[in-house]
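ok trying this again, last paste got cut off
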Amino acid sequence: MERYCRYDNFAWLYNQEWRTFGERIFPLLKDIAGEMLPDRAKVLDLCCGTGQLAKVLTDKGYEVTGIDGSREMLRYAKQNAPAAEFAAADARAFEFPPIYNAVFSTFNSLNHILKLGELLRTFKNVYKCLVSGGVFIFDLSTERHFKKHWKSHKEIKDIPDCFYAIHNDYNTEECLALFHCTIFRSKAGNWQRSDVTVQETFYPVADVKSSLKKAGFTDIRAHSFSRERGLQKSTRNSFQIFYYARKP
């Protein structure tokens, strides 16, 4: 759990700037899940962040559990989605009983897992906690995204009581996407600085599908998504891929 402490300093800004994410992503998840997401289903929000998706899910009547490795992220999640349950847990090591109809992991959360073997362990943990016929839906950013949209992206923004700067980079040789964020936040008339650096990587579609099969999943599908065209079959030019897998 110690490795996730770096996300704690970022939790406040994450909660401020990406609070509408859950509302945007839920219709897409519902579309992919189809009839496999029954009313009042039990849903596990894997790497739930500050609970934006969990709030949308509980508002729509689903029974939600959220897990994340950052305790500060979870503190905000409990405020944002008080009807959900939350637990501090590592996606690569959690153990839950087979009670969930669906597991969602969104906002490229699993790109933060840097080794394929650890991603496979995560898939196995998800498989174990699903009921028979339960579905696992998650998104991953592709290498094309990191090369075209991520690399050398810079952003400076001034919001009430806060000023922050983001600088991204991508190391092609090591397949590592770097996210750097410097935050200046006003507290009691003083400006406090915090710096956050996190890493992500990409996984070829073939490796993701193979790992899902090894974990026991069937009916594996890969969808491409863009705001302009919506949900389509994934291609080598896709920037973001949504995966669907089902427990037999």
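PB: full thing came through this time. The first strand starts at residue 42 and ends at 46.
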